Amino acid sequence: MPPNALPIVASRMARHRPSACDDCHVADAPFGIRPARDEDRLPLAVLFAAVAEERSGIAAEPPVDVDALAIAQSLDGALAAAAGDDIIGWLHVEQTPFGFGEIGMLVASEWRGRGVGSALLEAAIERARERGMHKLSLSVFAHNTAAIALYHKFGFVDEGRRIRHFRRANGELWDAFEMGLLL
Ligand SMILES: CC(C)(COP(=O)(O)OP(=O)(O)OC[C@H]1O[C@@H](n2cnc3c(N)ncnc32)[C@H](O)[C@@H]1OP(=O)(O)O)[C@@H](O)C(=O)NCCC(=O)NCCS
After folding, report:
1. Looking at the domain 6-182, which fold is it?
2. Which atom of ligand 1 has the smallest separation from the CA of 19?
């Protein structure tokens, strides 16, 4: 293993969920989960900007300054999902001084429904326990059924609905759920 390589903390073959991407090349490709490292900065920022362009799952909206984000983002607490040389997913746990960690995550659109989000979250929960956190928490848009199902699958519970909480670039006000998992 090269000296600067970090261990793969989880790896698996993508499982197949019927989707709009049924015939795409990622269907059976293997991927791994590992701590994010310095050379991931730019691809992670590019992936973040692409998901922000969707304007539906994450709070950030375009324009994303990819170069600035690549430099500024924290790699501490960040996991990357990688398929070969491609970065296909990201999960960040912001560890607070109060014992809980705040999660943000995303998966490249062509890789969704194939277990990448589950693998990232499973690894993050294990890591948070190892780091002595007592809880993971997050905010999720109320319409984000895929993300909410993922969090429920791992035992997160609904802790409340924030009404008309996020103002979007188009002026809409979106509700969000607070969710938490006691570790
Ligand atoms: C939410 C997200 C991270 C899920 O990642 P993913 O790789 O697609 O998740 P998985 O394939 O591991 O699916 C995990 C679970 O989510 C649920 N799920 C996934 N896709 C779903 C869909 N389209 N509809 C309903 N539930 C879905 C299922 O419960 C699934 O578990 P199962 O396969 O055992 O039934 C991904 O959709 C994403 O990046 N979305 C855009 C960004 C975003 O919304 N981030 C979260 C912000 S809070």
Report:
1. Aminopeptidase (3.40.630)
2. 23
